[in-house]
Amino acid sequence: MIGQRIKEIRNNNNLTQEELADGIISRTYLSLIEKGTVQPSTNVLVKLSKRLNCTVNDFMAEVSHFKYNNFEILREIGHYELKVDNEDYEIVKHFIDKEYEQIEDVPLPDSGRIHLIYARYFKFKGDLKRTKLHTDKALQKLSTIAVNQHYVNAVLLKSELLAEDGETDAAIDILEETVYLTTKFGELNISDIKLRFALVKCYIIFKQYYTAYRLTTDIKQISSRLNITYKEEKLKKYEMLTLVKLGKYKDALELAGDSSETDAGIMRAYSLWQLDKVKEADQLLKAIPAPDKEISSIPQISGLYKELTGRLGGL
What we know:
CATH architecture of the domain at 234-314: Alpha Horseshoe
Strand content: under 5%
Number of helices: 18
Mean pLDDT: 88
Structural class: mainly alpha
Number of strands: 0
Shape: elongated
Distance between the termini: 77 Å
Helix content: over 70%
């Protein structure tokens, strides 16, 4: 009971466990106190009460149920969603420490948004188990209402996790289903672009290059209609890659232009080689700095580079 009250008062003061425990006890020990695993000494209680600007007697009061405050927590959710979008994960930890997922009476959609913040935070931290747990909870709760941006973000994260696990077909299924829902029941928006962008990556993994190319065209058309851009340079690379894989080397060269960027340079060199312009391809390849590790974040482009160096390296 004391631990619950300490936690409640700490949350009311917008303090993390680290901030409250600093210089008094360890964060781990405070966590055990709040869980009721250990009982703190009177000396510790006095120090904690001073930092929390309360009395020790306040720790003995009946624990009030942590009820849902619509305005306050919605504001918090929105604030930390922006922090996640900006990859400000150290700030997001303050939200995680508040354990909002345990609040009573939270409407399912808002609970889903909370779990999605958790999932994206734990993804950044490399905690795959908790990432998957909170992603699935977010999807479950957000699926209770019409498809919106938050549901789409959960789908995007789920598809990414599936693809990383080698379940690209399952990732494609959930993305295609969501594209259908957004197209049927809503107006075009940035979500339609994000979903198709994720599908491009999946279809490239699946070696379905024509489908991937068609999707890049769809994305450009939607972007033009909405007058917005989304990962424009990366999209151009994917489009170029699909053209190369489809054997449309002249189109790939036209799209690449005179770009000296590494990925574009590799695909230019590969296209020139395929068009029997071996000398030009070799010169372009030699101008690309030798990498310390994988030359591209896109595995298929790294594959083109390895093939080129194997064929042209001895010239």
